[in-house]
Task: inverse folding
């Protein structure tokens, strides 16, 4: 039985790591290895992507906490970030939605004998009516609905809010009153919404329990299986450690791998923004 580090908690990123490549999970979380390889080239472009996404999340958080929009963006010189901000201000569905707002909400709970955590960009709660999870995706294009539906982020976030939410906001919160919206500032008129249900809650629970049990039951030694989709290895920091190449994949080319994104659940490099702490 595998021994995970003290204080370890399952989240959308490390669960996705296991699904994408169990060897990557083993190296990163079980063995705690740090590898110097960069995730994508050119490094400067990748760093700008991560930094800009994190900054956008901070801007939205401040606005949802009640700070005036003009004060928040005073001196904002990045034209891309400013365009995203203007698109956000025009997102009427969000701004007219009634309810109390919980930006950058952190949830933690015991799930299936393990600790699980989720970092939610925004939850809007209208007591007795609905609770809506919003997630900002600062990518260059809208990601396909089928692909988003398969991601552990969608599964864990909806499941955890449905499990923990009644204790926070009241027993009225049933899975049918919960939904999740992915919003893309680069294409603001194309949000992707997932409505939840009791049946999905049961199915997601089975999936999460199976993943957690598979990880906890893994062998302490040996080499866990590597992904069969070798194109993803170019965007993994452990590629040279696994003998899967030494050159980082091109940052701009990753989004063109639609078949990999849907079939293998890739987009490794883009998980970084969701894991930035605020």
Result:
């Amino acid at each position: 039985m595998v021994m995970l580090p003290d204080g370890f908690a399952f989240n959308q990123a490390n669960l996705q790591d296991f699904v994408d490549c169990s060897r990557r999970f083993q190296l990163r979380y079980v063995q705690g290895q740090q590898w110097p390889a960069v995730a994508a080239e050119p490094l400067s472009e990748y760093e700008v992507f991560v930094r800009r996404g994190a900054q956008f999340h901070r801007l939205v958080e401040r606005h949802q906490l009640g700070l005036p929009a003009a004060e928040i963006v005073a001196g904002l010189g990045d034209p891309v970030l400013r365009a995203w901000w203007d698109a956000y201000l025009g997102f009427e569905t969000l701004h007219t939605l009634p309810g109390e707002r919980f930006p950058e909400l952190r949830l933690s709970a015991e799930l299936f004998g393990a600790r699980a955590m989720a970092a939610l960009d925004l939850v809007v709660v209208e007591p007795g009516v609905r609770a809506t999870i919003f997630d900002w995706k600062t990518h260059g294009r809208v990601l396909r609905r089928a692909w988003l539906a398969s991601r552990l982020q969608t599964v864990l976030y909806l499941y955890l809010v449905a499990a923990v939410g009644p204790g926070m906001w009241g027993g009225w919160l049933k899975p049918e009153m919960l939904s999740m919206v992915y919003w893309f500032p680069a294409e603001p008129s194309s949000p992707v919404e997932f409505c939840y249900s009791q049946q999905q809650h049961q199915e997601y629970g089975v999936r999460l329990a199976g993943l957690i049990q598979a990880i906890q039951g893994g062998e302490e030694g040996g080499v866990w299986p590597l992904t069969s989709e070798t194109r993803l290895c170019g965007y993994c920091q452990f590629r040279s450690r696994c003998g899967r190449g030494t050159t980082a994949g091109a940052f701009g080319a990753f989004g063109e791998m639609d078949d990999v994104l849907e079939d293998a659940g890739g987009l490794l490099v883009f998980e970084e923004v969701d894991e930035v702490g605020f």
Q: What stands out?
A: Strands lie at 40-41, 100-111, 114-126, 130-136, 178-183, 192-195, 249-250.
